[in-house]
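Field log, afternoon session.

UNIT: design team B
ACTIVITY: writing a sequence onto a fixed backbone
BACKBONE:
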């Protein structure tokens, strides 16, 4: 096998890996939002504080996805 074929295989596998890496943050955001709605239903007077905390949790989950996407560009993998 020549190096061009190996580069093509690595590129395709990396693309699939990046796609699979988005599953984790997606599931995490779904759990965060679902539990927040559940908590708001139990204690409606805390809705404002719960919503703020939910947005922080979503932001942290999204940062993990962005780090996973940006890492190959930064380190040249």
């Amino acid at each position: 096998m020549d190096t061009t074929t190996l580069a093509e295989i690595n590129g395709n596998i990396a693309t699939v890996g990046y796609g699979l890496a988005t599953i984790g943050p997606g599931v995490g955001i779904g759990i965060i939002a679902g539990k927040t709605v559940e908590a708001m239903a139990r204690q409606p007077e805390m809705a404002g504080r719960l919503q703020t905390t939910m947005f922080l949790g979503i932001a942290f989950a999204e940062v993990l996805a962005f780090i996973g996407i940006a890492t190959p560009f930064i380190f040249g993998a």
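LOG NOTE: The first helix runs from residue 3 to 21.
NEXT ACTIVITY: expression trials, pending approval
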